[in-house]
Design goal:
Layout: H1 9-16, E1 36-42, E2 71-72, E3 80-82, E4 85-88, E5 94-95, E6 100-112, E7 118-133, E8 136-137, E9 149-151
Antiparallel strand pairs: 1-2, 1-6, 3-4, 4-9, 5-8, 6-7
């Protein structure tokens, strides 16, 4: 049997739990999960893979229980692996609560508010306009190929 080049699956899972640091100086002593938030952005905002930290520029304003900076995602299901993928998903849906209203928005930006508001991911969806109500993101099944966060 020949060797096969690949990123080790266990490493992918360990990245999701912060066990590897290839940079200089950042030491983590925390044993609890960081706080991850989701901020909603207007369809005219310019978030992308190059976004590095949270910014209020282009974010939906304060409305109902939604405040600038977004809302907390809550607890994530423990990272897991299947095949060559590592994945995790929040354990509950994300909701703005009642009384929310906003002009056309189409993006939720996930960031780590416990770690300098560093970017995690930009998720886009069909444009939404809410006059007064609740906006809810139902989380996908936590499995390879469907989880919210995946390292393949």
């Amino acid at each position: 049997m020949a060797n096969t080049q690949a990123m080790c699956t266990s490493f992918k899972n360990e990245m999701l739990t912060g066990q590897h640091n290839f940079g200089v100086g950042f030491i983590r002593a925390a044993t609890t999960q960081d706080t991850f938030k989701g901020a909603l952005y207007f369809a005219t905002a310019s978030l992308s893979a190059t976004t590095t930290v949270y910014s209020a520029t282009g974010e939906v304003g304060n409305s109902g229980s939604y405040v600038a900076g977004g809302l907390t995602f809550g607890t994530f299901i423990a990272p897991s692996t299947s095949g060559t993928s590592a994945f995790t998903t929040p354990s509950a849906s994300w909701s703005t609560g009642t009384g929310f209203s906003a002009a056309a928005f189409d993006t939720i930006f996930m960031y780590n508010s416990s770690n300098g508001n560093k970017a995690v991911a930009v998720f886009t969806f069909g444009s939404q306009t809410i006059v007064s109500g609740t906006f809810t993101l139902t989380m996908p099944t936590n499995a390879a190929g469907t989880a919210l966060l995946q390292v393949n």
